[in-house]
Amino acid sequence: MKIVTTVVLLLICNCLLAQSIVRFAAIGDYGKAGTNELNVSNLVKSWNPEFIITLGDNNYELGEQSTIDTNIGYYYHDFIYPYTGIYGSGDTVNRFFPSLGNHDWYTSQAAAYLNYFTLPGNERYYDFVKGNVHFFSIDSDPNEPDGVDSNSVQALWLKNALANSTQKWNVVYFHHPPYSSSQHGSQAYMQWPFKKWGATTVLAGHDHTYERIMIDSLLYIVNGLGGKSIYSFNTVIPGSQLRYNNNYGAMLISSYSDSMVFKFYSVSGNQRDYYRLLPTPKKLYMKLFVQGFYDSAADTSAIDTVKVLLRNSFAPYSVTDSSAGVIDIYGNVILEFLKADNATSYYVSIKHRNSIETWSSAGMIFVSNIMTLDMTSSASSAYGSNMKLIDSSPVAFGLYGGDVDQDGFINATDVSIVDNGVANYDSGYVLTDLTGNNFVDGTDFLIADNNAAIYAEVITP
Hints:
Elements: H1 2-18, E1 22-27, H2 35-47, E2 52-54, H3 65-76, E3 96-97, H4 111-116, E4 126-130, E5 133-137, H5 153-163, E6 169-173, H6 194-197, E7 201-204, E8 210-215, E9 218-223, E10 240-244, E11 249-255, E12 260-266, E13 271-277, E14 282-287, E15 294-295, E16 300-301, E17 304-312, E18 319-327, E19 332-337, E20 346-352, E21 358-359, E22 370-374, E23 388-392, E24 395-398, H7 412-423, H8 442-453
Parallel strand pairs: 1-2, 2-3, 5-6, 6-7, 7-9, 14-22
Antiparallel strand pairs: 1-11, 4-5, 8-9, 8-10, 11-12, 12-13, 14-19, 15-16, 17-18, 17-20, 20-21, 23-24
Helix pairs in contact: 7-8
């Protein structure tokens, strides 16, 4: 009976882990009433997605008031709130999040589009959060009043919004593709530094094809097969990984705690692409010294490994993520984290094989996947100023050495362990070597003894 119960519990746990957090559809270049759009909309509705995002050109040909409900509401009114068209009652909450395309701008400064939808922000570009995904809808059309180059008001808004996002995934979407192998081709003015700013992926339309592209380790997708027409491919651009233009279709995208899965289906119901995206690692650039490992004459350090824990900045300060790295002779180390989020405060807890665990003085955050921390220039960089002055010129601080048994205290037990190491002529990579020279001698003993005399111990919030 116990075995059966255990198996059932494991199956339940595995099912829960496999459940998506957010599940949504993406359509592009779709707003042309007819059989093609009907087939795509039926495909999308068969998935029962939580919501839909669009990649522009919602209302062919001229973005007019007289055509918008026929081009959009007839097919997707069930997702729109408030819905004021003639094809049904709409939804009770909005589940339709479009982006502007060039055809939407052709009449009256996109007035029909802006009147038809009720969207966040200024409605031309905006953001919203669903589950663990932060969405950023951008207006890539040159008519955008706030500009479309990487230094524009709109781009600055996106840069700041991405920097402040606390979600696992940041999806940026708009109409004109930064990269494409089809008719319109790559739109250089939209090649913003999305990766540097913290985007997870960039989705676009405009070219009526499906194409998956990887540029500088950032996923770009062109998805313009929503129903208007189909384009051919031209010269394949570098980074293009998959191309499809045999039929119309749409994307089904699911987010999980550890990945995002992108699928493209044709209206026949066949899956034409599958891609699983892992999180962009968050990088901590840190500088630190370990007391006995530092050579004050050369201002350099012996090389060794440290482990860093990222802890919540609130009690009970649980560990969110961890990483290990090797500090170089100048005390520099780069550590990567896969579970951490941007704009979220973490205490940085540093552990070394025979030193006191040392916490950052305050919560630190990743901005656009980057965090920097210098633990050498001031004792105040550590919580409770729990650092040892190891050099007066230039001033340098380091972790207290001597916590050989890693119990958070340097005391008689540690001193005794080191003393025994001296007596036994310990050598090599051993815990009792407090100077990193692969020998245990009187110098190591003095470090442990002196720090025990001042009751050096871990200090935490």
